[in-house]
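tool=predict chain=A
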Amino acid sequence: MESTSASDASEDDGPRLNFHDAWTSDDEADDARECGTGRGFYKTRRRTTTTRRDDDAGAATDEDASTSSVSGTTTTTAPYRLVMPRGLGALDVSQAGSLGTTVWCAALALCDAAARGACGDVRGKTVLELGAGCGASGFYVAALGAREVTVADCGAAAMINLRRTAEAYDRLRAAAAETACDDVVAGRVRLRRHLWEEDAEILDARRSGETKREVRHWSKTAANGGDAFGDVVAVDDDETFDVVIASDVLYFSNQEDSLLAAIELRTKRPDGVCVIAQTMRENNGVVFERFVAAAKRRFDVVDVSRLTFPNGTFARGKETPHALEDPYRLIVLRGGGGRGA
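tool=predict ok
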């Protein structure tokens, strides 16, 4: 995969990955540390304007296609039509064609796992989706009856894209409320900005008794759309959730610690649960193993098991060409660990 070097990349370019190619390896990501700031970032890649449509990804019609323009990049693709649970119909999950605005198969595997009880009974509970991207899993869990789901991401392009899905979801929810029984009505969804690295700083500050440090991060720069969040505020420092979910968040080694910090800070203790669906690829096996080992020191690891993509339930989403033949894994963690006071 062609990518810029650490010396070539500028902050204005922003972290980018081309999801048509194999993603950079763990080692390559480590080599690019100087391209980003804070505790984590992605390998950079210069990208030009593209227009695409995935017919094999549950796409709706071309007339429904969404367009997003952030940092000089414009992409267009059709929404993913997500069949919602409990007879609520189909939600058009907006896609804008970039890495963080595309519905990936792991998110759909997580939807299926949640429907089969991997998150426990979510009815009446609060849920956080970390690194939500398109937010497919978060909206789906809300439809299972969660009281409120917070769909969170740090990217402005993702947030612009998520707003469209949130509007479609609110229409679907309103229609269901008029026709369905009370116990079938879907829960509320709110959008929030969230950086894992900031959660790590919150934990460090609590443990040291010092003021948390400001995180300098690519997503905050104007060139990467950092001024495009509008009225979407950050997750409050003190907010915790009954259930935390995430999909395809284990890829780069320099994100392991900040992801664990986010899970630790945001999962209620002692009974909160975190459920992660992860795609195993040729170059993230070590990251996965290290994450599970570190999680065992901070949480009760309830389950690490295989997930089968729910063919016949969902149309397939996007997948990288270097995913393994049997790629999907489920991780279930319980409790908030040694979170600072």
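Residues 94 and 161 are 6 Å apart (CA to CA). The chain is about 25% helix and 20% strand.
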